[in-house]
Amino acid sequence: MNILFIGGFAGWGSKFSSIAESLSSNDEISDFHIISQGIDSYEDICGKESTNHLSFEELYKEFLDSSSIVNKHNLEQRYGPLYKIAASDRTLLQFTHPIEYGRLHSQDFMTSYVAYWLNFYENFLVKNKIDVVVTSVIASVMSLTAAMVCEKKNIKLLSLGLTRYPDRATFYKDIQMTERIHFSDYTFHHLEKAEKLIEEKNKKQINPSWLEWKKQLSNPLNIFNYVNSIRSNNLYKKYKLYFGLVDFKDPILFLPTISLRIKSYVLKMIRSYYYSRLKKLAKLPKGKFYLYALHVDPEMATSVLALNWIDQLDLIKRIKIQMYHDVKLLVKEHPSMIGIRNVNFYKEIQAIPGVEICSDSLATEDLIKSSALVISITGTISLEAAIFNKPSFLFAKTDFSSISSISVFDGNLDLLGKQLKMSEEICLKDISEIKEFLADNYANSVSLTGSEIWNSETKNQFKYINKMTYLLSKSLNEIKDC
């Protein structure tokens, strides 16, 4: 079995290198290639003198220097609009995003960039006889184009992600993460774990692993943030030395200029203060209400899983227009987005009659339990609602949208109001359904949280690499037998 690993930031090039070497030594794979991203992985893998290593930065420099003309029309015949593919990448299409990553690229640049990657994978995957592509990157043209070429050429794909509840590492068969790899049936032991999780969730004893991690990243008193900032300053020289890349206003490099980093920090302080002073709903309303949970923006939940709903402000307006007169719409901000969104976003929400923003003091669990319906684009809050046996509504399919209490938009905007109304009455067919779903998640994942997966320091941890090697080994065996 010949594998192409596509590793993003957080040391995933290095991690995949260690995992691949372990699988190769056990004769589980015959050969492997790695595309890494970031200086740390580049230096680590180059130190191993790997002959099958390419870096994202080297390939991007090749794209910038290339003068060849690509037939975009032919590519769009096979893969659809190149502009739409570009929208999956947070650094490219920024017109709906609250974060400024650098200067905006032109339409021609973006579509040419997508065309470059499609051509690259069409050639590379065939030339190197790749059997499986394994990626840790989701919201990026680099990975999305690989997934699209895999589908055309019937090459297997494994996409690293989380089971969300519980917060554990797993692999999916598609880049949209709608079909999780199933390599093991759950046991009584897994059912016991699921029961405990449900009990702890009802007691408000569980928070996502990323919550504390995000708090630390945004804490201005955390000294490690300043140390990391200094480390980032050293990266500019290395990008110039290793790759000849010198334009750090280019958002694709994901290394903002010092002035942009300072600007972003100041803006975050101003926006956080504005949000804290914003008039918000502090108590649960007595009347009937729907709860809409805002997504992190930009992120794969919208830009990859549900691109048609990437503009959340527009979606909130559409939802409210279709709602019945006696129902309020409450909007709950995502904790990690406080201080990120433009203040005008909140002003426009508050200008919509019948829509209110919830205070942070209102626990999400209480809001879910008191609501008539929980609404999200693809968010895990629908899975939380299922744990409480409350109905919810999604605008795109996910790996958990098959749960009976979760309704999925049928595509007819004119009938959205009726579909929302009907969804209010749909609960779990059987209370054991959610328990079995969670038990299955336990059985087909490993005990690594989201904050551990996206932490670059774990690349040198023996237990971490062993767990990931075990997970990938099981997943490869499963798709090999399909």
Structure description:
- The chain has 482 residues and is an alpha/beta fold.
- The protein has three domains: 2-184 and 448-480, Rossmann fold (3-Layer(aba) Sandwich), CATH 3.40.50; 210-276, no CATH class; 279-436, Rossmann fold (3-Layer(aba) Sandwich).
- The protein is 47% helix and 11% strand.
- It has helices at residues 12-25, 39-46, 56-65, 72-79, 82-86, 107-127, 141-153, 188-202, 209-218, 223-243, 258-277, 300-303, 312-322, 343-350, 364-370, 381-387, 416-423, 432-443, 450-453, 462-480; strands spanning 2-6, 31-36, 53-55, 132-135, 156-162, 169-172, 289-293, 328-332, 355-357, 373-376, 392-394, 406-408.
- The strands form two sheets. A six-stranded mixed sheet has the order 3-2-1-4-5-6, sandwiched between helices. Strands 9-8-7-10-11-12 form a six-stranded parallel sheet, sandwiched between helices.
- Helix 1 (12-25) packs parallel to helix 2 (39-46) and helix 1 crosses helix 20 (462-480).
- The longest helix is centred in the N-terminal third of the chain and has 21 residues, at 107-127.
- It is globular and about 65 Å long.
- The model has no long low-confidence stretch (mean pLDDT 91).
